[in-house]
């Protein structure tokens, strides 16, 4: 009996230990618990005065705007508040205005000279110099990430004195200011140090405070900012990946601002008296590419037939209400160089006739690859397009692919049709048209020496009016030859609490909170 | 016991090696190129090859494998390609949060399912039994993301009692842990109930009743301990699963745990991070299973005796 009692006791202690193990977690400080240093959850509908909390629709992988994540919207949204650029693009006029550079000149076609604003200080107190600009341009090139091709024509960056930057190029660069509007400046002495961008300093309106990966990034107002002082004391970027959680957090006031919501969420939010919705035409658009190396897509009649088969206006109205509209050109209207084209009429009879002329009276079978999540309602749009094509006898099989695989197939030209979104990050037609449609890009197997000539000339012309004319010609070729189908331009819809004021939406999809105030 | 533990440990090392090998092969067999995933579609072929060389991906696969094993043995998990940070550090940032969520969910589930299961077994065929069975069936059947969103809508949006997402305070822990707990409670309650029913029909329980022991003591001292082995096994397995990250719940509640980290790493072909996270998760799973196995000896001395034989 004694033996049995012992056994029971030891068994009980074991169970206690098991339970203790469970409780030890919460008590051991894995996560702050009530009564410690935690900022308690806010039961009231609005945050503390002076704090703006933003929930972006994507996670921040890096704050480094020079490297692999250098054209990601999440990275650039954080970066634009910590760092400054030499110039910025006015969202209303499209003109480039002074930021860290107060003036610039072009002594010859291949040379740009910028004069830096005097006495600009980084958050650590050190002074901005021309060496910083040189270091950052060279860093972008050395890292060979997505922003690097913007600087492909660079010959050298020279720094004759602390306030002068001379950028020499091998060929004239018509997009120099657009490129510089994406180049965020960090101190030369530290920018290449390991871990710098985990605790960065810039010259921008907000100072970096902390980053809990996949949770939140916290910034504080820079009271010594050279420009107009920021509107809020604390700017927080909170990571809430799930739409339902993000919308709820907005409605309860846990966050003040979000965007990138699916269209079905918008009507209810619009009815909420505490919220405001603002939408703006963006740099982002949908397109369907044809693989020109694979018959029958090397035949312009087949490509046009597939475009005529789509009722783009109906799809835009029914599937993209509030978030998209029919496109008018191969680049969105917000982009420098945009020239509207005559729309392809929805005409299945004409489409069938074109197929007959091309030798496909019965239609044909093909496939379309796409990567889910690239844009709003992508799955619904794929299904709608497939049923429209089916109506003219073209049977398209949907091949939904995970991003890494889709990307590899895309570049290997291992596809028939490809449905995706693209964003013209620099706001300049060159970023999209030359990068994608120049024969050297080998993106869709299309080669047209005439188009190449136009795009090359536009890229190396400093006269912006001449560039507009060249891009108008280039767009006409792309549109009339139906190099791809350009169905929809996307809108960015920002939803925020009415206590915010001063928010100005920009087409870049990289919201600017520098001057936003909270009540 | 020591010999048994040693045997189990050797077995665990084999399992770990197997898991590491499988993940090493699996991540390389799926199409997709890490260099391309990092540099993007505009990178030149030369830049892509340079990055592959820097990452060591251009070397023979056997060499890569041997180096990887060698480094893992030294606990050098390398650097994440995408996050450009040491894998161990990245994992250790998130693992405590995943562990906290997992342990809390298990404690809640145990706290709920034991009383419910025992009650249902004692009141077999009663209304209570039916209600508990219905509850556990629903708990087992509802998808976790749906339950999570419903709880957000009720407690955050309607009642405004709890935050909807994040991991800033203990309040943020309640909804995700409750979601995981409710789903596991469904499974566990059924197990506790059926285990109790089986044990309650045993002769020694009848004997305990016959000798006049209070019904409460019969349950606690005689019945409960004898149905624990399968229950503890399932708890251990579930804990192991949860330590691997509850990806869906972490996503729904914006909980920065290891599950989301791993899924993102897989999508971006971040080989070192995938390998490091799988190593960590597998090791955690093995350790918990080892503890469960060793616990059998405490829960049922006959197990210990038979092993000594």
Describe the structure in your own words.
The complex is a heterodimer of chains A (519) and B (309). Chain A has a domain at 284-490: Roll (Dipeptide-binding Protein, domain 3), CATH 3.10.105.10. Helices cover 30% and strands 23% of the residues of chain A. Chain A is globular, with a radius of gyration of 27 Å. The longest helix of chain A is centred in the first third of the chain and has 26 residues, at 2-27. In chain A, the strands form 4 sheets. In chain A, strands 1, 8, 9, 10, 11, 12, 13, 14, 15, 16, 17 and 18 form a 12-stranded mixed beta sheet that branches. In chain A, strands 4-5-7-6 form a 4-stranded antiparallel beta sheet, covered by helices on one side. Chain A is built from 14 helices and 20 strands. Chain A is an alpha+beta fold. Chain B is mostly helical. In chain B, helix 5 crosses helix 8 (170-200). The interface between A and B is large, with 66 and 69 residues.
User: What is the architecture of one domain in chain A at the second tier of CATH?
Assistant: Roll
Indicate the radius of gyration of chain B in whole angstroms: 24 Å
Beta content of chain A comes to 15-25%
Give the termini distance of chain B in whole angstroms.
Answer: 11 Å
DSSP strand count of chain B: 0
- The helix fraction of chain A, in percent, is 25-40%
Tell me briefly what this model is.
The complex is a heterodimer of chains A (519) and B (309). Helix content of chain A is 30%, strand content 23%.
Q: What features would you highlight for this structure?
A:
heterodimer; A: 519 residues; alpha+beta; Dipeptide-binding Protein, domain 3; 4-stranded antiparallel β-sheet; disordered N terminus; B: 309 residues; 15 helices; flat
């Amino acid at each position: 009996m004694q033996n049995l009692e012992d056994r029971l006791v030891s068994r009980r202690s074991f169970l206690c230990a098991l339970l203790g193990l469970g409780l030890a977690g919460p008590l051991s400080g894995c996560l702050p618990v009530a009564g410690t240093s935690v900022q308690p959850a806010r039961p009231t509908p609005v945050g503390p005065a002076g704090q703006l909390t933003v929930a972006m629709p994507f996670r921040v992988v890096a704050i480094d705007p020079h490297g692999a994540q250098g054209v990601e919207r999440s990275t650039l949204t954080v970066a634009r508040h910590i760092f400054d650029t030499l110039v910025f693009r006015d969202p209303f006029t499209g003109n480039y205005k002074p930021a860290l550079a107060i003036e610039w000149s072009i002594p010859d076609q291949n040379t740009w000279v910028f004069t830096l604003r005097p006495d600009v200080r980084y958050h650590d107190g050190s002074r901005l110099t021309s060496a910083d600009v040189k270091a950052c341009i060279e860093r972008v090139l050395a890292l060979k990430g997505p922003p690097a091709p913007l600087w492909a024509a660079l010959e050298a960056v020279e720094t004759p004195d602390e306030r002068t930057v001379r950028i020499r190029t091998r060929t004239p660069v018509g997009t120099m200011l657009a490129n510089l509007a994406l180049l965020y400046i960090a101190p030369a002495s530290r920018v290449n140090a390991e871990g710098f961008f985990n605790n960065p300093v810039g010259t921008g309106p907000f100072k970096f405070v902390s980053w809990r990966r996949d949770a939140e990034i916290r910034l504080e107002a820079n009271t010594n900012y050279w420009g107009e002082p920021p509107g809020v004391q604390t700017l927080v970027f909170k990571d809430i990946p799930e739409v339902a959680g993000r919308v709820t957090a907005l409605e309860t006031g846990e966050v003040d601002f979000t965007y990138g919501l699916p269209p079905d969420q918008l009507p209810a939010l619009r009815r909420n008296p505490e919220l405001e919705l603002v939408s703006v035409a963006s740099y982002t658009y949908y397109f369907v590419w044809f693989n020109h190396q694979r018959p029958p897509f090397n035949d312009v009649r087949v490509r046009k037939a597939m475009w005529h088969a789509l009722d783009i206006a109906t799809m835009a109205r029914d599937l993209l209400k509030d978030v998209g509209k029919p496109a008018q050109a191969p680049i969105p209207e917000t982009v420098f160089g945009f020239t509207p084209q005559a729309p392809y009429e929805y005409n299945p009879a004409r489409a069938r006739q074109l197929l007959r002329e091309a030798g496909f009276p019965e239609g044909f079978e093909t496939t379309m690859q796409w990567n889910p999540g690239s844009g709003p309602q992508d799955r619904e749009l794929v299904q709608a397009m497939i049923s429209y094509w089916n109506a003219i006898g073209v049977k398209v099989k949907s091949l939904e692919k995970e991003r890494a695989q889709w990307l590899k197939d895309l570049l290997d030209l291992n596809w028939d049709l490809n449905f995706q979104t693209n964003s013209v990050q620099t706001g300049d037609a060159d970023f999209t048209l030359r990068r994608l449609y120049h024969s050297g890009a080998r993106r869709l197997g299309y080669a047209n020496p005439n188009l190449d000539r136009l795009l090359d000339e536009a890229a190396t012309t400093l006269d912006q009016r001449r560039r507009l004319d060249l891009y108008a010609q280039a767009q006409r070729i792309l549109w009339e030859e139906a190099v791809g189908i350009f169905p929809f331009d996307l809108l960015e819809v920002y939803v925020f609490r009415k206590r915010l004021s001063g928010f100005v939406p920009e087409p870049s999809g990289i919201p600017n909170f520098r001057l936003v105030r909270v009540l | 016991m020591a010999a048994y533990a040693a045997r189990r440990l050797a077995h665990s090392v084999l399992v770990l090696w197997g898991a590491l090998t499988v993940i090493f092969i699996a991540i390389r067999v799926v199409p997709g190129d890490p260099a391309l995933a990092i540099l993007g579609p505009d990178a030149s072929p030369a830049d892509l090859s340079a990055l592959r060389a820097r990452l060591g991906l251009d070397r023979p696969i056997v060499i890569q494998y041997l180096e990887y094993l060698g480094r893992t043995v030294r606990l050098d998990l390398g650097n994440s390609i995408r996050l450009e940070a040491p894998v161990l550090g990245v994992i250790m940032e998130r693992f405590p949060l995943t562990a906290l969520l997992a342990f809390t969910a298990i404690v809640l589930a145990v706290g709920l399912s034991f009383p419910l299961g025992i009650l249902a077994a004692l009141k077999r065929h009663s209304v209570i039994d039916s209600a508990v069975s219905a509850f556990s069936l629903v708990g087992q059947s509802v998808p976790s993301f749906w339950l999570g969103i419903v709880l957000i809508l009720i407690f955050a949006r309607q009642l405004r009692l709890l935050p909807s997402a994040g991991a800033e305070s203990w309040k943020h822990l309640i909804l995700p842990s409750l979601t995981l707990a409710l789903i596991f409670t469904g499974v566990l309650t059924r197990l506790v109930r059926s285990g109790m029913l089986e044990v309650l029909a045993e002769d020694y329980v009848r004997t305990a009743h016959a000798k006049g022991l209070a019904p409460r003591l019969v349950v606690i001292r005689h019945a409960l301990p004898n149905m624990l082995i399968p229950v503890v096994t399932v708890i251990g397995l579930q804990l192991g699963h949860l330590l691997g990250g509850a990806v869906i719940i972490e996503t729904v509640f914006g909980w920065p745990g290891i599950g989301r980290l791993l899924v993102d790493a897989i999508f971006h072909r971040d080989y070192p991070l995938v390998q490091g996270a799988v190593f960590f998760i597998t090791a955690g799973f093995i350790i918990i299973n080892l503890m469960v196995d060793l616990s059998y000896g405490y829960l049922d001395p006959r197990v210990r005796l038979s092993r000594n034989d």
